[in-house]
Please model this.
Amino acid sequence: MRARRQPSLTLRSTLAFAVVAMLAVSSAGMYLYETMKASVMTRSDHAVLARLDHFRKLLQYDLTLDTLRGSPQLFENMLDSEDDIFIIAEPGKPPVIMVNPLHAPLPEMPVVAANRPLAAADLRSGEVDPGVPLRAATVEAISGGKVVHLTAAHLAVKEMATLAGFRNRILFAVALAFVLTALLGYLLLRRGLRPLRRMADHATAITPARLDSRMDSSDTPVELQQLSEAYNAMLDRLADGYQRLTQFSADLAHEIRTPVGSLMGHCQVALRQPRTADEYQMLLASNLEELERISRMVESILFLARADDAQAALNLQSLDLAEELQRVTGYFEGLAEERQMSLNSQGDGQLKADPLLLRRALSNLVANAIRYADEGSAIDIRVETASGQCRIEVENQGPTLSESTLAKLFDRFYRGDASRHQSSDSNGLGLAIVAAIMQFHGGEVTASQPVPGTIRFTLAFPAS
Ligand SMILES: Nc1ncnc2c1ncn2[C@@H]1O[C@H](COP(=O)(O)OP(=O)(O)OP(=O)(O)O)[C@@H](O)[C@H]1O
Ligand SMILES: [Mg+2]
Model:
């Protein structure tokens, strides 16, 4: 079943950016709106207070109630709009002047005494229509010996309309911020993520035949550079592994073809005419030898092919090295004597290793030494343990090898010219197996020539 598609990263990031931009713009807008509202209301409060102050003085010093009664329009014209309320009345009597075009209800208000200056705290709030605030105050004045009450109020109708307009603009700005950020963010992110899409396209085009193509990471952003480099490095490793595998199978085919061809040749020649029983016996014996070699080769190849699983199945045991060397030298003593060689081993120590694999590695090295060393020379096997690290050296006298040959010894199927001619017994896999065994153990095998004509193989095990 196909996994559910996760929402796109571009879309998610874009939306997140847009929401953040929207929140930022709306917070700023809200702050500005509140500031503006406060300042508008303060201005209207000042206007109400100034008006009351002005008329209180006017009534106290210049105007009498009677003059006012005579010409009430005087007042009505003095107020500038429908939004203002002004009432002049003697307490307990019908008002002399009453301007309240919208018939707005007034809140309960304390009366500010005639001798006390007016302050903002004397104002009271009310509400006309829902959402339209009103600010009002009442003061006392003494006009021509009579007590008069003056009431003024202001309805913030226009102010609220202005503020409403302002609020709509803020809402528009918030919406615009969302849309613009989303749009720009989307475009920028798409651009920024282009290397990822390129990488996907590139990966799609990779086939075993096209393993050499690499991503160009020069214009990749830093964050993706690491990925692109890792991707290229992975391709390097894959190409390398694939190349070795191809080489291995080519070598394998080649190596198998030769002995099989020679087996067939021998049989064809033998069948051409009647042979004696002795001749058949000789043929079968020689064929058996060849078949044994093929079988050994197949077994070695299988060992190397299973190398990866073998590492997991490593059976590590604490081994006494003196004992192990004894066992190997004992096994090869006869062969060495045949070539008048001496096998010397020295040193001992403990080592954690897989016993079968260690014996196999040592046997391969000693078998090589006996096979390729000069007749009558000595083979030295030494164990050295220093700071927990264990080294086993196998050294023999033999032909001087060039540096390039030395580097090739561990390649699969590599055989020195001499061994090619000398014996049909050689497969060129012994040292490759030693190298694989050392790799399982986390160590390595190296070949060196301390002096020309002496070749030394060193098994270096890691400190346990
Ligand atoms: N001790 C040695 N002295 C000189 N040359 C050596 C020695 N050991 C290995 N070589 C060279 O390295 C080559 C590779 O060795 P390796 O053990 O991998 O294969 P081989 O001995 O030819 O065949 P196999 O071990 O598979 O039967 C040999 O053919 C030989 O030329
Ligand atoms: Mg060998």
Q: What stands out?
A: Residues 364, 367-368, 430 surround magnesium ion (ligand 2) (CB under 6 Å). The first strand starts at residue 84 and ends at 89. The chain has a mean pLDDT of 88.
